[in-house]
Write a structure and sequence with these properties.
eight-stranded parallel β-barrel; 9 helices; alpha/beta; about 260 residues
Length: about 260
C-alpha cells in the first residue's frame, strides 16, 4: 500500500519515508511541492530510502499551474514546474510521475483550442521524461468549474497519440458521483490509482469519513497489479489522517503491507 506524502505535510519527505517504513508501507507518492516547501535536499530523501524498501512515485507540481492556459507565460511556466518535478523524481529515485491536465482559462472559448495547447505541452514533457528515462502519467480530474479532462472518453482521446509513453492516473474520489468501477474499466493505459473519501462538500478526506461505498473501496484496494495510493492533505503534526487511514485499511482486512 502507498500513501501520499501530503498525509504528513508537516514533515520533510525524508522523515515521511521513515514513517512509511515504520508503518510497513510498500510505497510513498512524493509531492514535489512538499519537498520544495521544506527545502529538503533530494539526497536526504534518497539516503532515507537507501535500501529501496519504499517504492517512490512522484506527484508533480500542480497547484496554481495550467499547462493549457491561453496565457503563454503561464502555460510555459507550468510546463517548467513539471519539468523540475521530473528532475526531482530522478534525484530521489522515483520512476513514475503523475501530473495534472490543464483546464479552461475562459469556458467561452472552444475546448479544441485548449486541447491543442495541452498536447503541445504534453509533447514537451514527454521529451523531458525520456531524457531521464521516467514514466509520465496524466490524472483524470473531477467534474468542477474549468476542468474538462473529467471523463475516460476525453482522456483516452487526448493520450491516444502519446501511447505508450504516456500513462494515466485514475482517482477514485474524482468519480464519486458516478460509477468509479466503470470509469476505471473505460480508462486506458492506467499505471496508478489514487484513493480517498469524499464528503458532500470536500474531496480527499480520510477513508471511511465520507460517502464513498466501503465495498467499492475494498475492490480497488484489492488490486495488486498497480500502485494504489491513499491520498489526503494533513498539515498537523499529529498525523491523525495518516493514522486514521491505516486503521481503516486494517478494518477492511487489507493485510498486505499494513501493520497488524
Amino acid at each position: 500500500m502507498h500513501f501520499a506524502s501530503t498525509l504528513a505535510w508537516a514533515y520533510p519527505v525524508d522523515e515521511v519515508v521513515q514513517i512509511a517504513k515504520k508503518n510497513e508501507l510498500s510505497g510513498l507518492e512524493v509531492w514535489a511541492e512538499q519537498v520544495w516547501f521544506h527545502g529538503t535536499n533530494p539526497e536526504k530523501i534518497r539516503k532515507a530510502n537507501l535500501d529501496q524498501s519504499i517504492n517512490l512515485t512522484m506527484h508533480a507540481a500542480s497547484w496554481d499551474l495550467n499547462i493549457c492556459s491561453i496565457e503563454k507565460e503561464i502555460r510555459e511556466s507550468s510546463v517548467r514546474q513539471i519539468q523540475h518535478s521530473i528532475k526531482l523524481a530522478d534525484e530521489i529515485g522515483a520512476d513514475s510521475i503523475t501530473f495534472h491536465p490543464g483546464r479552461l482559462t475562459l469556458p467561452q472559448m472552444k475546448q479544441e483550442i485548449y486541447e491543442t495547447l495541452m498536447m503541445e505541452s504534453i509533447f514537451t514533457l514527454i521529451e523531458t521524461a525520456k531524457q531521464y528515462k521516467k514514466t509520465l502519467s496524466i490524472e483524470l480530474m473531477e467534474v468542477k468549474a474549468k476542468e474538462f479532462v473529467t471523463s475516460p472518453n476525453t482522456m483516452n482521446r487526448l493520450i491516444a497519440s502519446f501511447i505508450p509513453e504516456l500513462k494515466t492516473t485514475f482517482d477514485v474520489a474524482h468519480i464519486s458521483e458516478g460509477a468509479p468501477g466503470r470509469a476505471f474499466a473505460d480508462l486506458i493505459n492506467v499505471d496508478k490509482i489514487h484513493v480517498s473519501d469524499n464528503t458532500e462538500s470536500q474531496l480527499h478526506v480520510p477513508l471511511g469519513t465520507g460517502i464513498l461505498d466501503r465495498n467499492m473501496l475494498r475492490e480497488f484496494f484489492a488490486i495488486t497489479s498497480l500502485p494504489v495510493v491513499v491520498e489526503g492533505f494533513d498539515a498537523s503534526e499529529n498525523l491523525n489522517w495518516w493514522k486514521h487511514n491505516l486503521h481503516y485499511l486494517k478494518s477492511l482486512e487489507i493485510q498486505k503491507e499494513v501493520p497488524q
